[in-house]
């Protein structure tokens, strides 16, 4: 890996099942992640993905590219536009630093309304 290398994009269909399953798996029982009627009552057009699901998908994106020996050392993300059912999130990444076995990757995830997630992942890839 070299600074400037781009990871191939990954399209993730944002399904109702993915949103609800991610919320349940992370024990996030907020109604806006599983109840469309209550989400609308709170101002959202539908349920939306929680940050822990996004965090997991970002980690998967990086480890899928770096391989099974990669160990995530730091994931620092910020959410923007929500991921609603029926949309697609496209993750992209660019290597920003390489120091020995440690690589830093700038991540972006976009959907039809904008940037859903931005951030940086630091991973160790033993040789």
UniProtKB/TrEMBL annotation:
InterPro entries: HotDog_dom_sf, MaoC-like_dom. It comes from the Bacteria. Residues 10-97 form the MaoC-like domain. Pfam families: MaoC_dehydratas. CDD domains: SAV4209. Belongs to the enoyl-CoA hydratase/isomerase family. This is Acyl dehydratase. It comes from Streptomyces bambusae.
């Amino acid at each position: 890996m070299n600074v400037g290398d781009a990871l191939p994009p990954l399209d993730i269909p944002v399904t109702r099942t993915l949103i609800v399953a991610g919320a349940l798996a992370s024990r996030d029982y907020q109604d806006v992640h599983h109840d469309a009627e209550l989400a609308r009552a709170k101002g959202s057009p539908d349920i939306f993905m929680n940050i822990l699901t996004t965090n997991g998908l970002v980690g998967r994106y990086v480890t899928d590219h770096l391989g099974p020996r990669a160990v995530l050392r730091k994931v620092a993300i910020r959410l923007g536009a929500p991921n609603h059912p029926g949309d697609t999130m496209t993750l992209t990444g660019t290597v920003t630093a390489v120091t020995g076995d440690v690589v830093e990757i700038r991540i972006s995830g976009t959907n039809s309304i904008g940037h859903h997630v931005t951030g940086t992942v630091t991973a160790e890839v033993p040789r």
